[in-house]
Amino acid sequence: MAENNITSIVPDIYEALDVVSRELTGLIPAVTMNASAERAGLNQNIVVDVEPAGNVADITPAMAIPDPTGQTSGSTNIQITKSRAAEFGFIGDHQKELNTGPGYQNVRAAKIAQAIRSVVNEVETDLGGLQSTFSRAYGTAATTPFGTANDYTDASNVLKILKDNGSPQSDNQLVINTSAGANFIGKQSAVNSAGTDSMLRQGVLLDLAGMPLRESAQIQNSVSGTSANAVVNAALTVGQTSITLKAAGTGTIVTGDVISFAGDTNQYVVQTGAAAVSGATIVIAAPGIQKAQAVGDKAITITAASARNMAFNRSALVLAARAPARPEEGDMAEDVILITDPRSGLTMEFAMYKGYRKVRYEVGLAWGVKNIKPEHTALLLG
Q1: Stretch 187-201: mean pLDDT, rounded?
Q2: Residue 64 falls within a domain, yes or no?
């Protein structure tokens, strides 16, 4: 007889998770997870603390103790933008039919594992989408990183961007696609001493100067704007993020484009693009321009479409995850539990609904993602 609650089938679920095919999830374990047993509704804001930079002041002798400054803690909101459930169901006839073959319990456990896989992949994809909010980029479009044997300069240069932008030197992460991963495994001798089996099971290929290198199946490829002959209108100053263009050029610059300016080798990520570049204003990510240029008329080059491998400090990217909202009075769910996916670390809600000669299972999660510190993020092009 089939079990009447979800709790009794948890061992079967975990066994199935080891059998069902899974994509690589390198981003979820690399970011800050803001998770809670509390439920959250769609479009609800989750408040996350963000400490501002400390205040340094002159020391001035006085009989009275000066009032402290810089004591206010900052915060930012992360919106729950998705409340989703992967679902499936069975009727009695189908259960009987399955018991003549692979067995209903085996199929049910596998379907639950597939549902977990679907939710995890969607969360990983959303984290990959944050690439358009990063600060600067290193590398060459359409050239896969780590293509030269025993050469780690791709990693060291993207790490240099984080260092130059003031990122903390602990807990920096580099997540690459499988093409870059194949180069790394095939050409870099250090991978043979990558570390323990537990590191490899967590998707860590190697720890590079304190920066774990992981693979993800959801690293995105960009779609570039179509701009030609776009030109900067005026001089550029260090830290400037808003760039006015001359009434010249054609085409578009889109959010997430990687651009460079004549006379400056830095590659900047566009936060606000322009549907028509002539006379428009675009915005690049903080910390903005790195090289001052006293004269305008600098041509803008858009980097071709490329893979967007992601380097960042863990504290910069936040994933807020909650169980989906339910009415305070409850609903028609027969049984509800929370279970953690051992591969990604995500805790999801499992629910079972019994109907007329039919049962429905759901694997649900509510979540939102945000880059709360663009300065501490950088792209490695591929």
Answers
A1: 60
A2: no
